[in-house]
Amino acid sequence: MKRTPLPAFLQSMLDVVIRHNNMALRIAFAIVYGWFGILKPLGLSPATGLVQHTLSVFPHDVISPALGIWEVIIGIMFLLPKYTRIAMAMFAVHMAGTFLPMFLLPDLAYTQAPFVFTLVGQYIVKNLVFVAAAGYLWSAYEAGTPKD
What we know:
This protein is mainly alpha-helical. The chain has one domain. Helices cover 72% and strands 3% of the residues. The protein has helices spanning 8-39, 48-54, 60-79, 84-98, 100-104, 106-109, 119-125, 127-143; strands at residues 110-112, 116-117. It has a two-stranded antiparallel ribbon. Helix 1 runs antiparallel to helix 3, helix 1 packs across helix 8 and helix 3 (60-79) runs antiparallel to helix 4. The longest helix is centred in the N-terminal third of the chain and has 32 residues, at 8-39. The radius of gyration is 18 Å and the shape is globular.
């Protein structure tokens, strides 16, 4: 099916988005990971209790700050394309951890498992968007296009 051409100004905007979408995703990841991450060692994160409950085998005064530092490093790595493989490995480990409450703490994640989530469950499931965005970045990186 043939598409109707876009008006010139819309096509120009689309061209800019296409040309810079990899870097825009990298910046978005860096902002989210940096922001959420730095709150943990500062003792300001609303996720501290969830982290401590989920990873209760670790000392409470260590796990949340350590996770926050890990998240800040992921954010920095996303900004530096030459470290994409490291960022993706760290991201994969982090994402696996973010889904743990769905299995380890179902009372915190669901009101009616498996389809009705609490706010915590919704917070966790939205990470599927991050996984999809990271998958796009990874595929673009591996394909070698574009280099931004």
